[in-house]
Amino acid sequence: MTLDLFEKFDRTLESFNQLPKGDFNPFTVSMDAVISPTEAIINGRKTILAGTNNYMGMTYNRECMDAAEEALNSFGTGTTGSRVLNGTYNGHKILEETLKDFYDTEHAIVFSTGYQANLGIIATVAGPKDYVIIDADSHASIYDGCAMGNATVVRFEHNDPENLEKRLARIRRKDPDAGILVVIEGVYSMLGDQAPIKQLAEAAKKHDAFVLVDEAHSIGVFGKTGRGVAQEQGVEHLVDFTIGTFSKSVGTVGGYCVSNHPKFEVLRLVCRPYVFTASLPPSVVASATKALELIKNSNLRVKLLENSMRLNKGLSDAGFNVGTTGESPIAAIVIDEQDIAIAYWQQMMQEGVYVNLAVPPATPNGLNLMRCSLSAAHSLEQIDYMLEKFIAIGKNLGVLN
Ligand SMILES: Cc1ncc(COP(=O)(O)O)c(C=O)c1O
Question: Is 217 known to be catalytic?
């Protein structure tokens, strides 16, 4: 008998089919029109976007849009080539120079997505005789980078320097000469908690390990010039590789890695997710470059953190279990029952607020989350409206007493 290759997905399909169809299915929402960084028309209704990762509201920044339009008109819609064959335009080089300037590093390499940056750097830098030690709550792209590479992968408990140190010591006892890469994130995307980079990186350095920090959710948001949590904590000198994305604060798409490693440029020849894919379109490259220039000198961070504090405080004061203490623009309400979480999400949509329903396997510890990620572009009125609806629906569903 021939087995159906898709049989393994039957349980997933079964759960999916139990969800309502169309725009009241949390995984199939589509936007009829986008009005601004914080509002769209969904299901014919004006809706506040409360989970977009558009931290700086850059998607509608006039200067970024003008830069993109000019590049589109001058260089066309796409490069149709890899960075190493036909796909490097002047704009890509300017973007890499801008990143070097932004981070004050010797090297910068741009990928087509942040996902590919993690895949490429982790799978290439850590080879068959090396070890990658990752935080247990790492993003899928970090796990996939490990799966694609040939290094031995070890996990340590989330944000736990002592546990990391134990893992490092055990590896060093067994294999004194092994190359070791420790991978952490600046801000964890589901609950919004920050990594204690100093303590984690010091443990790594004690055992001669390299440190990679994924600042996907922290570029623009933290640090004096928006470089991320390592800059905020004053520990950039302990970080060997910084990964980031243009798909959040930068308001477009693409990924990057910056580093001072003297041999870093060899990655342009050996890193498969860099070599074997088409480069970013010129319009994207131009808007990312402009956004980085704006972010560096911007005070939008102050407004963003003010917004975040207002939502996080409002939720905790109302009695919600919000997982963390408002240390980032991400606020996530923990809901015990998945059915209640789905109903909650639908009722928020009916009231014109689109939050992220996040469920396992995307979440740590099997949590069901109503996840918001705020923008500097949100008004205080929008935040207060979200709070009002969260509280009213929470009471209705018995999430709040
Ligand atoms: C921590 C982290 N790393 C990497 C990525 C991937 O970024 P991109 O959207 O550019 O592929 C994400 C996106 O959600 C993320 O949260």
Answer: yes
Indicate if the pLDDT at residue 163 is higher than 90: yes
Interhelix angle 300-318/380-396, rounded to 10 degrees, is 20
Binding site membership of 122 for ligand 1 (Cβ less than 6 Å): no
The pair phi, psi for residue 22, each rounded to 5°, is 70, -145
What gap in Å lies between CA 271 and CA 128, rounded to an integer?
Answer: 15
Residue 189 Cα to ligand 1 midpoint, Å, equals: 9
Q: Which residues contact 363 (CB under 8 A, 6 or more apart)?
A: 190, 369
pTM (whole model) above 0.70: yes
- Which residue among 138, 189, 328, 373 is the active-site one? 189
| C-alpha to C-alpha distance for 95 and 80, rounded to whole angstroms | 18
Parallel/antiparallel/unpaired status of strands 368-373 and 356-358: antiparallel
Task: Kindly indicate the confidence band of residue 23, based on its pLDDT and cuts at 50, 70 and 90.
Answer: low
92 belongs to the catalytic site: no
Beta 107-111 vs 255-259: how paired, if at all? antiparallel
SS3 track for 296-365: HCCCHHHHHHHHHHHHHHHHHHHCCCCCCCCCCCEEEEEECCHHHHHHHHHHHHHCCEECEEECCCCCHH
Question: Can you list the domains of the chain with their CATH numbers?
Answer: 7-56+299-396 (3.90.1150.10), 61-296 (3.40.640.10)
Residue nearest to atom 16 of ligand 1 (CA): 189
In eight-state DSSP terms, residue 81 is S
Instruction: For a ligand 1 pocket test, name from 58, 141, 187 the mutation site with the most ligand atoms within 8 angstroms of its C-beta.
Output: 141
